[in-house]
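User: structure tokens for this one?
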Amino acid sequence: MNKKKILTKINNEIDFNPECDGYILGFENFSVCFEKKFSLSEIRLAIKKYIDKEIFVALNRPIFNKEINDYKEALLKLDKLGLKGIIVGDIAALTYGLKTNLILDQMHLNNSYFTINHYYNNNVNGVILTNDITLDEINTIKENSNALLFKQGFGLSHLSTSVRKLTTNYLKFSKIKNADKYYFIKEPNKNDYYYIIEDDFGTHIFDSKVLNLSLYLDDLNVDYIIVDSFLIDKNKMETVYKAFSSFDKKFLVKLENEPNYTEGFINKKTIYKVKNNE
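Assistant:
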């Protein structure tokens, strides 16, 4: 069995699961889609407390021109902490001479080993693969790249992000009082709906069905599997962590039988694809 390392995104205290191999922490002011974000001092404490775990910090949001200096300063401070890796979305980080391993997270763009190898040859140690590709495509990337591969194995799939305040504008235009923390987009004449989350940096849309690749742990040829509890009932996460960390069949079966889970694109044929460099 090719056992991968399991990382949990820290949204609350339960996500510091002792059976997992490491943790991904959101960084205040520079992370999106985390229910909890850490200050520099809190990250230092986490490194000392969880000395046996691999600690990654994510700066995964779009960076604006006026923020470049603050972004660089934040990265240089993180670079001194001895982290296992820093996850970045803005490739300006590649020019700062950081010693810490850089993991590139471009949401929907890391889907080709040609691109991944280009970044690998330019100071990127690993990439977080998009959820929009199949099992065969993931394994083909691994066969043709030396970069470390990270893949979300459980959690809500990110669909899109806009820097516009879409929810605020809609509520204002419709004269609806803004009282709820989360809203939903529903497809006409269907039961499908999507989470729409607004924060200080824009609007984020997520699938309402939870991506669950627990049955593919043996088949996925990646280095790290990411488990994300963002917007998910925390009472379910203990079973999830046991299934992913131990590969225990009784927990895997329990997960498989849960409603509202999806395998995403893992077994869907890619229809629209550039061929022969056309």
